[in-house]
Amino acid sequence: MARKISMKQAVNEALDQAMAADPTVICMGEDIVGGAGGNGEMDAWGGVLGVTKGLYAKHPKQMMDTPLSESAYIGAAIGAAACGMRPVAELMFIDFMGVCFDQIFNQAAKFKYMFGGKAETPVVIRCMVGAGFRAAAQHSQMLTPLFAHIPGLKVVCPSNAYDTKGLLIQSIRDNDPVIFCEHKNLYAHECEVPEASYTIPFGEANIVREGKHCTIVTYGLMVHRSLDAAAVLAKEGVEVEIVDLRTLSPLDMDTVLESVTKTGRLVCVDEASPRCNIATDISAQVCMHAFGALKAQIEMVTPPHTPVPFSPVLEDMYIPSAAQIATAVRKTIKGSK
Amino acid sequence: MQVQNPFPLSRDELLTVYRQMRTIREFEERLHIDFGRGDIPGFVHLYAGEEATAAGIMHHLNDGDRIASTHRGHGHCIAKGVDVVGMMKEIYGKKGGSCNGKGGSMHIADLSRGMMGANGILGAGGPLICGAALAAKYRNKGEVGICFFGDGASNQGTILESMNLAGVWNLPVIFVVENNGYAESTSRDYGTAVDSYVDRAAGFGLPGVTVDGTDFFAVHEAAGAVIKRAREGGGPSLLECKMVRYFGHFEGDAQTYRAPGELDDIRANHNCLKILGDQLTAAGIISQSELTKIDEEVMVLIEHSVKEAKAAPFPTLADLTTDVYINY
Amino acid sequence: MSDIQTPPCVGIIANPVSARDIRRIIANASNLQTSERVSILLRVLTTLAASGVERVLMMPDKGGISAMLLRSLKRERSQNHQFPELEFVDMSVTSTVNDTFFAARSMQQAGVNAIIVLGGDGTHRAVVRELMLGTQAGKKAVPIAGLSTGTNNAFPEMREPTITALAVGLYATQRLKGTQALAQNKVLEVSIDQGQRRDIAIVDAIISRDRFIGARAIWKTDNLEAAYLTFADPQVIGLSAIGGLLEPVGRTETGGLTISISDDPGRCKFRLKAPIAPGMIADIGIAGFERMPAGQPFSVALEAGVIALDGEREMPFDTHEQVSITLHENAFQTIDVTRCMQVAAREGLYIHQPSRLS
Ligand SMILES: Cc1ncc(C[n+]2csc(CCOP(=O)(O)OP(=O)(O)O)c2C)c(N)n1
Ligand SMILES: [Mg+2]
Questions:
Q1: C286, C265 Cβ separation under 8 angstroms
Q2: What is the pTM (predicted TM-score) of this model?
């Protein structure tokens, strides 16, 4: 039986193997090593949550701590990528993208097109996403739609350790800029992961549960909430099919359309704010391409249109729950033509 | 014998300052304990050890003067006059907290006190305080803006851009570097190419001064000079306070990046509260028993705030969607 | 001369935090940036190397100087520029004046031929204080050469550091003898309660009615009570300028000067304008002044206050404490750069045959 590791270990292992395989892979970020310039332990942190712990000892030349200057080092990662390196820059929380957004959406995303196809920018920007950490409005957002919106960027958001390892290695090998979103509430989640290096291609959704009555399209932590809902619904005789998108750009619409054609019902679940998000995008495309297959109106489950609240009770109400998802599925069944 | 007060503050003011610093210390010590017990959710960055800086600066300010704080903001809040019970409720995520439970430790604000918010984004306060100072300049009442930021955040572009803007517009802004030697686990020595903030300021034509941030009187005197200058139209300047952080970067940090013995030295030799207490008692104008009495009163206040916070109700579903817009 | 170490070794103490005090706010005093301090050190090091000094022992710091110097040396050496072997004193850095004390002590112990000091009056005072303690304990006296890191100082002269380094090089490599290269200096010894607490000043000891240390630099004149000066030069800046404009006393002249200061109409005899900080011309009420003969203790009349030593408030004293101040001559040695260079020129020390060019 293959061994089980956590998503946190999967990230670490993917980086380790990628650096070992290719000396142009360099990692940079605030405290990804830790203890720099001090008189105590070097590699003291390995990232705020210890995700990169131990990598400095193995790859001292490929692990760089940075000053607290996101515009500068994220931009530098992009510049180095355009000059033959494969940097993996860590931005801690996706919320900090605001500080260095220009480098990402005006520079990295556009080089290839603006320069008439002559540039390649194989940079990966890793960041934590999502609510549930009691980290309040500036450390909890799910900003995936913001990046999926921008032509030139690829956006990845895995839901488990297996996908994380394969997609991260793919992201590093990919020649386009990739925003790699790691849900902080999934770091401890474990599953079977092969020891050898492997990749998962972009734009291939994963059907994590098969069913015939209703399709749930989702990604990240919401995959697990949807699975919980499916377990409840199964007892009611409702078999839900769950599509884990894995990559939000490119987006595997073929798998979504195929599933919706089969079930005739669609619930889109997204942890991002409700306006102009991945759920609205999927619904619009399904309406365009599979309207005839729909037996009921599409349902969406998202947080309310508010910043992420701090108070634990409010935050728990904010994050879409399995119960909300189950309710939405029941609505599609009841409301069927 | 009548003892002459050798200090630039009255006896009453000195007692108030001591109380304020003690309140910050106890507030943080208590959070440290309660967080360890699992009572407190989220990220908590404690200000303990750095009290003399907040108190030395804030003593010169009124409610009309604005401050932009940091992720390590509890000390700034207390010194700026934010209600301690409201703060404690906020940190517990309760209704009736400074931000009704919506902000938490990292976002406590009280605009009526000129406290423009603790901030989760490093360096974000620089531009904001330039705006506050611009508004003050229009009001023309001699109000100032103080931007607090750490040695780490000093490397954000926003801070450098703000120094330039403040210089260009001659804004009444004081840039206060709270230099505690670390940004998370990274030593200041690694993160800054030229390790003098006074030099940085000079690059923008701003005068700067470095003081021992653990000595209340040193901070108070230097802050008095830079704030007076700003109030009178003399423009922006920079104040670097060298200080020490008592606890980890955030609660739960094992601090293995520190040298062996470093923390013991900090607590034994750089305890700003003890330094102030010793100065006051040595001068003979305030007795140890008066200080002890304040310590006890502060303990009661903190205990009270925790009780209130625990007893306060949580926000409800109806609160979730309020206050996103003024109207929508 | 046997008292010179071979191979020649020079100590360097560069204070990273000098000239960062409140005078920059209240009087636009100049600030020598860290990068500029490092440039000075690089000039000093190349000059020492060219003078035949093979080793330099330096104080480490956490204020950015040593870090930046090492970075710069790496770049310079990769271009094959010549430097002496640079070694840092083995010590843990506290970023307080204790670093200077420790470094000066270690350098004296190690037998360096001279110490180059980069800093203001306060830094020089700290080095001298430690070296004097060492000499009293039987160690060999070490001369210092000062480099000013601002215009705020009275003790170190303003001069291009290359020239200072040349003079140090001449002495350290024995091309000049002590009698040719060195000057003697005076100090003020401050003693509280018969030596319970003791300290020194190399330029001025100022008594103020303030009783707290605060931001250290002394800059307010309304509470001044008295000044004690080792020398008083009308061309230097600082509180000693009061003496300079009243009754100049040379650095090598015998005796010092003491001045009573008061705004009290009953005591004030006349007023004097003096540049007590850069750009700050203060109006001082003078109650009297007299020469201070060496070796004679002067007791301070004020009951309680603070003593500023060479510009920084250092020693608060209380009503029950007795303060006395004594001038001592021949207390420590400095490299007399002017004289060194004149002798070097007169004796043709820099002239050599083309064949000797390496
Ligand atoms: C834009 C941004 N980048 C990174 C962080 C994560 N972070 C929070 S505090 C901190 C270190 C701050 O160091 P410093 O400015 O010295 O303040 P201190 O914590 O020492 O008070 C970091 C990197 C953040 N909150 N915002
Ligand atoms: Mg810091």
A1: no
A2: 0.90
